[in-house]
Design a protein that fits this description.
The protein contains four helices and two strands; from the N terminus they run αααββα. The protein is mainly alpha-helical and 119 residues long.
């Protein structure tokens, strides 16, 4: 029995150290908070990089198609009003024509188009 009493008294005498337990809890909580904040920062950085790569730096297909269409229209010659002799001219060609004319403000006189019945 003496051994049993000795073992029982040993268990009853060793109380947990409350200061050490509190220190471990506080340090563990602070360490966990720092790890969570660090991982959240890594996630946000990766998220911003993906957003920039997929959304910001890519030109949408519809915008690209619209730009191609606009450039095609700007660089093509076409009739605006055939009856009155109004033609759409590419901007570069229009600038060259304006610079070549000594008096660009003078009205343009177009010859009268022949009627379809005249030989």
């Amino acid at each position: 029995m003496s051994e049993h009493e000795h073992h029982a008294s040993h268990v009853e005498e060793s109380d947990p150290d409350s200061t050490m337990t509190f220190t471990v809890i506080v340090v563990g909580t602070i360490l966990l908070a720092v790890i969570v904040v660090f991982i959240q920062g890594l996630y946000e950085r990766a998220n911003r990089a993906e957003l920039g790569r997929k959304v910001v730096s890519e030109t949408p297909a519809e915008l690209h198609r619209l730009r191609v269409e606009q450039l095609t229209r700007l660089n093509a010659m076409a009739w605006v009003d055939r009856k009155n002799g109004i033609v759409a001219v590419p901007i570069d060609k229009a600038i060259d024509l304006m610079l070549a004319d000594p008096n660009p403000a003078a009205p343009v006189v177009l010859p009268v188009p022949p009627s379809p019945g005249t030989p």
